[in-house]
Every structure is written in C-alpha cells, then in structure tokens.
Task: inverse folding
C-alpha cells in the first residue's frame, strides 16, 4: 500500500471509530430495518414517501459504515513520542498568536480524519496546518488562507 494511502490516527481516535462502527452495525442497522418495515406496512411502495425516505437513509447509513471501515483498513497509529519536541508536527499542541489582532490560539495538529476546529484540532493538510508544520517556537509564519494572509507567531509547543 502506498504511504500516501495511510490514514494516521491516534490510538484514542482509532478506538472511537471502532466503537462507532460497532454501534452502527449493531443498533443502527436494526433501527433502519425497523423504519423500513414500518414504512412498508403503510401499503403501496410506489407512492410511499416514508418508505423512500427510509431506503435513502439506509443508503447514507451504509455509506457511513463503508467509510469508517475504509478508514480502519488504512489506519496507522501515530506515536508523538517519536517526533522532535522542538518543531511543529502531527500531534503537536501549539500556541500561536495572530500578529494582526494579537489573539492567541491553541491548536492540536491532527490528521484530516481527526480534525475538529471547534475542539482546536486542525488538520496538517489544511492551509494553517501546512503553514505551521516544521515551525519552531519564536518563528513567525505567513500563511495564505482564503481570507487573505495570516501571520502567526509560534509561542509554545506542548
């Protein structure tokens, strides 16, 4: 398998995905089957919008299961202890200051599959993530983002 095909995950995220997949396969499929059976009981399937909606939901549901299975099949566990402590890399926790508005932000650098901006987890493949990778404390980086040019100073690596 080519290296670019791997999905890099923390052990914690791998466990979360495995739990979610198990839940979807056990309880989720049962719930969808019940919805389809209930809609089917309403009569003529050719004019049954409830049945059509339940079948569409089933398709989306199975797609989600398939995507999770694909992620797990390509997963590689990453261990932050093997990375340098003096520069930004995947799994780094980095504190930065926006040089324009002087606000500080804490980010954790993660794989695209783990990214969650609300939790401060940014993907290493995002413009900001790419711009921060390899940076060291005290460095100032300029990152081109859709809204313009972002200028950040690396304040701290945890």
Result:
């Amino acid at each position: 398998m080519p290296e670019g095909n791997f999905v890099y995950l923390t052990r914690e995220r791998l466990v979360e995905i495995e739990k979610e997949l198990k839940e979807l396969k056990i309880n989720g499929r049962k719930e969808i089957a019940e919805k389809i059976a209930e809609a089917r009981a309403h009569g003529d399937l050719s004019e049954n919008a409830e049945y059509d909606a339940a079948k569409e939901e089933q398709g989306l549901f199975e797609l989600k299961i398939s995507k999770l299975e694909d992620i797990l099949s390509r997963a590689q566990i990453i261990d932050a202890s093997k990375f340098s402590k003096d520069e930004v890399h995947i799994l780094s926790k980095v504190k930065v200051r926006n040089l324009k508005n002087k606000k500080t932000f804490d980010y954790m650098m993660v794989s695209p599959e783990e990214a969650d901006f609300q939790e401060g987890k940014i993907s290493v493949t995002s413009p900001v993530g790419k711009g921060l990778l390899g940076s060291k404390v005290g460095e100032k980086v300029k990152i081109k983002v859709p809204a313009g040019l972002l200028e950040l100073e690396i304040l701290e690596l945890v």
